[in-house]
Amino acid sequence: MSVVLALISSAVAMTLIVGLRYLAASGAFAAATRWRHPGLYAGLDRQIRREIGWSLASAAIYGVPAGIIAWGWQQRGWTQISSNLADWPLWYWPLSVLAYLVAHDTWFYWTHRLMHRPRWFRIAHAVHHASRPPTAWAAMAFHPVEALTGAVVIPALVFLIPIHWSALATVLAIMTVMGVTNHMGWEIFPRIVWGGRMGKWLITASHHQRHHVEYRGNYGLYFRFWDRLCGTDRGLGSFASPPRGAGAGGSATAAGAAERHGADQLA
Ligand SMILES: [Zn+2]
Ligand SMILES: [Zn+2]
After folding, report:
1. How close is the Cα of 195 to the center of ligand 2, in Å?
2. 41 — phi, psi (to 5°)?
């Protein structure tokens, strides 16, 4: 097979993988939402169709560079991805996962802040914020320009920071789960994760929800480090009202969709 054909098939295969991964992850968490908080996405069918459309377009933008890199890794020995666990001491495995998350978070924080400047917001980021309130399907609902800023991160990092493929798979799994759950409209993690000492540094739905309500502040992806350092941390949002159709839960249950539509209109 010619190199061009091999590159094209790798890019197509990776696009399919990213697209199916999105549908599986968002579909699973949307089903969990229907089960835990029935009615939370009521009246949002049109928005959800739009979120799925943008997300599938993003899948291609993520899939093409990833497919090219995957081909180069397999066929040409590109990248610092290793298949041999014995290449480094065992402690390097969790460290490499953390290094990727911190690097991705740093890139995301600063590009995200830039995209909140009026001109860039209109061009690249308004699509993501058109989800009011976002749902589990909004995980990859980005304008192509924004998708491109996200798509280059992991393909660049695999050239810079050595990593075992299983650690990279873990990074991608964390990226997928956090991308979906941060937009889901309710807090899936136990209070100890977001409400305690750990929550001062980690970002979950309670934090990102406030970004979608207030627009300014809470720009981070995984960690609150940059937000806290730069004075842009607005604290946790609250899903204060018990969800429709469910009993009175903790303070981190989902607000009714109507209430949050109201809050968004004030923003
Ligand atoms: Zn978001
Ligand atoms: Zn934003």
Report:
1. 23
2. -100, 15
Cα-to-centroid distance, 220 and ligand 2 (Å): 9
262 C-alpha to ligand 1 centroid (Å): 18
pLDDT in tens, the chain (267 residues): 699 999 999 999 999 999 999 999 999 999 999 999 999 999 999 999 999 999 999 999 999 999 999 999 999 999 999 999 999 999 999 999 999 999 999 999 999 999 999 999 999 999 999 998 999 999 999 999 999 999 999 999 999 999 999 999 999 999 999 999 999 999 999 999 998 888 999 999 999 999 999 999 999 999 999 999 999 999 998 875 544 433 333 334 333 333 333 333 333
How is the chain split into domains, by residue range? Answer: 3-261
Query: In angstroms, what is the span from residue 267 Cα to ligand 1's centroid?
Result: 15
Cα of 224 vs centre of ligand 2, distance in Å, is 15
Q: Where are the alpha helices (DSSP H) in the chain?
A: 3-36, 45-76, 92-114, 118-120, 126-129, 144-151, 153-160, 165-181, 191-194, 205-214, 225-230, 257-266
Ligand 1: centre distance to CA 127 (Å): 10
Please give the distance, rounded to the nearest whole angstrom, from the Cα atom of residue 111 to the centre of ligand 1: 13
Ligand 2 centroid, distance to 112 Cα (angstroms)? 6
Q: How many CB atoms lie within 10 A of CB 135?
A: 24
